[in-house]
């Protein structure tokens, strides 16, 4: 049995608990930001260490996981690939923001599931074609929502989510990245 075995379709109590947690978090954040707008700025951190053939052990907060490549890309397939993890991050953020804004907009949302696909041409990764970007050329999401609301209400929710989802924003807009390299003799 995995650690996720208890996570299943929502019961009425789970939905009520989630609504209370979302409302409390919203009140708490609003209060902190009202007291000092600087509290709105967050810094997220992760650390990676190379292991195995091309795998990386990632530590983020109290969590640790391994990202790797399949054998066809020189990996040991010890974990999901970095680009799959990027898609998973997008899916996860979308779920959070759908639930948050469903609560804020008074839209009943019983269940949500999301599938993501991304197209990547390995020539960009391997340097086989300068005109091919190394990342995704396109990402597609299939969002399935269940609940009693009209289609129009769920479209309203989708638009709001896409406007406010941090990981969607990362995918859609260039983010400045600073790289500092240090080396030491072995």
Automatic annotation (TrEMBL):
<dbReference type="InterPro" id="IPR015946">
    <property type="entry name" value="KH_dom-like_a/b"/>
</dbReference>
<dbReference type="InterPro" id="IPR003718">
    <property type="entry name" value="OsmC/Ohr_fam"/>
</dbReference>
<dbReference type="InterPro" id="IPR052924">
    <property type="entry name" value="OsmC/Ohr_hydroprdx_reductase"/>
</dbReference>
<protein>
    <submittedName>
        <fullName>Putative OsmC-like protein</fullName>
    </submittedName>
</protein>
<feature type="compositionally biased region" description="Polar residues">
    <location>
        <begin position="1"/>
        <end position="14"/>
    </location>
</feature>
<feature type="compositionally biased region" description="Basic and acidic residues">
    <location>
        <begin position="15"/>
        <end position="33"/>
    </location>
</feature>
<dbReference type="Pfam" id="PF02566">
    <property type="entry name" value="OsmC"/>
</dbReference>
<feature type="region of interest" description="Disordered">
    <location>
        <begin position="1"/>
        <end position="33"/>
    </location>
</feature>
<dbReference type="InterPro" id="IPR036102">
    <property type="entry name" value="OsmC/Ohrsf"/>
</dbReference>
